[in-house]
Amino acid sequence: PQPDPDPVSVVEPTVEEIAGGATEDAPWRTLEYFATTRVIVASALVLGAAAFGFRSLASAGAPQFGLLLTLGYFVAAALFAGLSLYFHRRFLLQAFAQLALDLGAVTALVIAGGGVASGWVILYLLPLVGASMLLTSIQVFFVCSIAVLAILVDAGLRALGAEPGESLLFQTGLFGAALFALSALLRALSARLASQERLARSRGRDLQNQLAINRLVIAQMDQGVIVVDRGGRVRANNRAARRMLGLDSTAQLTGERLSDISAASELAVAFSVWSEGGRSEGLWSNTIVPAPGS
Question: CB of 272 within 8 A of CB of 248?
Fold first, then answer.
């Protein structure tokens, strides 16, 4: 009959590995990072509004509008960050709600700051980057189209007023085209990174499975086996090896240095001599070192 599996050396897969938890947690981690980034950006806007304000609104008699707007954005961003951290339900709903908050806040800042020429349009990169990491391509371009429509409507209304119309509309059109091009680039990069991450995660699972199989095979062997790394630290062992060394069958050897195990001192010396001699080319392969006394 075959011996029982070694309770010390066999590594059981975790619940997360069995259930695929790492793959399922990835979107939520991304959403959490995105929400944290929004809180940082919103806090910077609050500090900027408190220190400098908005000149266009100050001249219109509403100097506190910018501070109130950025403060409200900060509070909402903090609430969404808490939801993404502690309420892992309805992922798409939370993602779209956060993107809607960004689009609304940035559009209000663009309008309050004086339109496309104000420079606030650069903040549209925040929802576009977030959408590229969280949503599909169609959804990313949908978010981008909302941002472009917002600045086009603002530019059109300003063109009907006292501001020069043609140059403003042309500048807005160029910026809208740039947003679409940037969205396509960000989505392509995000898809490539996601593919590489899935490949790395898959290879990691395969490696863990192979290691578990190797340790299970070693544990089932009748021959005594001790696996050590180049530094002489025990990485795997089985019950037969511990019995041959005169140790208890449940002794913990994994992680210990072979030289620190008194019962394996002669084996450690033999391994050290073999490894030092094997540093010259080719001596490590196909070499069997019998245990002392065997």
Answer: no
Residue 192 structure tokens? 């490539």
Place of tokens 């996601």: 194
- The tens digit of pLDDT for each residue in 126-141 reads 999 888 888 888 988 9
Section 22-27 average pLDDT:
50
Whole-angstrom distance, CA of residue 66 vs CA of residue 114? 12
CB 237 within 8 A of CB 227: yes
Q: Which residue has the tokens 């910026």?
A: 175
Look up the pTM and report it. Answer: 0.60
Residue 45 Cα distances to 41, 42, 111, angstroms: 6, 5, 15
**Whole-angstrom distance, CA of residue 4 vs CA of residue 238:** 11
The mean pLDDT value for 11-30 works out to 47
Residue 97 CB coordination number (10 Å): 13
pLDDT tens per residue across span 83-119:
988 888 888 899 999 999 999 999 988 888 777 777 7
What's the chain's length in residues?
A: 294
Pairing status of strand 234-237 against strand 226-228: antiparallel
CA–CA separation, 148 and 172 (whole Å): 8
Rounded to whole angstroms, the Cα distance separating 133 from 188 reads 10
How does pLDDT run across 147-185, given as a tens digit for each residue? Answer: 999 888 888 887 777 655 567 777 888 888 888 998 889
- CB of 257 within 8 A of CB of 233? yes
Question: At 235, which helix (H) or strand (E)?
Answer: strand 234-237
